[in-house]
Amino acid sequence: MRILLKFARAIDRLIEVLGQGTDWLVILTVAVGFYNVAVRYIGRFIGLQLSSNILIELQWYLFSIIFLLGFAYILKHDQNVRVDFWYAHWSERRKTWINLIGTLFFLIPFCSLGLYVALNPVLASWGQLPDGTWGSWEVSSDANGLPRAPIKTMLLVGLALLLLQAIAQAIKYAALLLGRPVNVQQDAEQLPYE
Asked: What is the mean pLDDT of each run of 10 residues along the chain (194 residues)?
């Protein structure tokens, strides 16, 4: 169990760093959005086209990255939505059992299936042809738009990170049920399991 808990701690650290890094992406997304709105109105006022499809698409790319990287961070900090009218009144042991069962039988299979289903479309977006050779990658249908392959790849990254965090959570839930003192939601640096 000790090795598994060290593995869980390593995942927690990775997710914590990535989750905190998305703070800067939020600021960048807001800045790009503000710029897009400002130049659209200024351009109308002076009669010039100042905005660009690159910046408009960049804004939704950044939002998508925040959303996809946030899955694992939300799970780590137990901020996910649940039906609390039952769950809130259960004992900690029962909550741990439900979390373990839900993680093992629903979340981990969901992430695995999502990775399996998304892999071929992402590879096709990068240019993999049905015969296994490579062609050009997918680009936006909008003039001056961004390539689609990198943002589609973020779907795989987001699901893989969520899968890793689900495995870490399952390890911690199992440790709790075995009587090990583990705080499932604490920051990686403060985790008492060593």
From this structure: 93 95 94 93 88 90 95 92 78 93 97 98 94 90 89 97 98 92 59 46
Spatial contact of 104 and 170, defined as CB atoms under 8 Å apart: yes
**Cβ of 111: how many Cβ atoms within 10 Å?**
22
Q: Where are the domains of the chain?
A: 2-190
Q: What is the pLDDT of residue 191?
A: 45
Half-sphere exposure of 85 (CA within 13 A, CB side): 0
Q: Which residues contact 138 (CB under 8 A, 6 or more apart)?
A: 124, 125, 126, 127, 147, 148, 149, 152
